[in-house]
Amino acid sequence: MNGRTDWAAHIVLGLGVLLFVLPVWLVFAASTQDAGAIGRGELSLIPDLTNFSAYVTVLRDGAPGVAPVGRMLLVSAAMAIGIAFGKIIISVLSAYAVTFFRFPFRMLCFWTIFITLMLPVEVRIIPTYAVMADFGLINTYAGLTVPLIASATATLLFRQVFLAVPDELVEAARMDGAGPLRFLRDILLPVSGANIAALFVILFVYGWNQYLWPLLVATDQRLDTMVIGIVKMVGADTATQWNQVMATAVLALLPPVTIVLLMQRWFVKGLTEGDK
């Protein structure tokens, strides 16, 4: 019975892998083929490994009305890293404050942060845009990242981790003369290392895939992200060069996939040991 169960599980797993890998394989195969053939529906499942001209073109020159992909990669990476680190720093500090400090309306502050989980970005995007415009941050890197660096979810997760710290450890640190910053640096951050790594992966991918906010706040072509660039390439007035679009899509996949693979062990550890 166990053998049959294992085979069934492996079959389901194999089908799941095929379901996710096949579209990526089609994108890669299309990126190495002629745009005209793709437009006629003559897409081959076998990539032409001698033809990577589309990659050279989009990296060096870009497409009509679109910045070179090399620049868009840098903009997307800077935005994703800024959002990930910003969310983690602010969430750690806010969770630390509501967990270990006693001040008036402490829980009110926490529940105010928590309630923002019920407000999606689309609900507050117009007032957020107005604030960015008043501060002159339209078409700036700060405008791309600052409105997205607060995270109620990350604050809640770090608060749960901090609540699991034994009171004896807190008292021992206090008796040892550790101040608030030293206690945070030497005890809480090492304890939260796996959670920070897991959140970094999630938040990096979140920042990398942003579309609506960069579309509104960055009208300058020099601040186009990878997602915005792909949309512009598909919606161009000229005939869509599908091989270049597919090459750009493949390049857009590489940074988040690399981050996930490099931090996979920490990512899994952070998700499975978060309550320990």
Describe the structure.
This protein has 276 residues and is mainly alpha-helical. It has 2 domains: 1-51, no CATH class; 71-272, Orthogonal Bundle (MetI-like fold). 70% of the residues lie in helices and 0% in strands. It has helices at residues 2-31, 35-39, 53-60, 69-100, 106-115, 125-134, 141-145, 152-163, 167-175, 180-191, 193-208, 212-217, 226-234, 242-262, 264-272. Helix 4 (69-100) packs across helix 8 (152-163), helix 11 crosses helix 15 (264-272) and helix 13 (226-234) runs antiparallel to helix 14. The longest helix has 32 residues, at 69-100. The protein starts with a helix and ends with a helix. The model has no long low-confidence stretch (mean pLDDT 85).
Q: What features would you highlight for this structure?
A:
single chain; 276 residues; mainly alpha; MetI-like fold; 15 helices; 70% helix
Determine the CATH topology of the largest domain: MetI-like fold
Number of domains: 2
Rg = 23 Å
CATH superfamily of the largest domain: MetI-like
Report the count of strand segments. 0
CATH architecture of the largest domain: Orthogonal Bundle
Let me know the average pLDDT: 85
Distance between the termini: 34 Å
Q: Supply the number of helical segments.
A: 15
Uncertain residue segments = none
Percentage beta strand: under 5%
The level of helicity is over 70%
SSE run: HHHHHHHHHHHHHHH
Overall shape: it is globular
Largest sheet: none
Structural class: mainly alpha
CATH class term of the largest domain:
Mainly Alpha
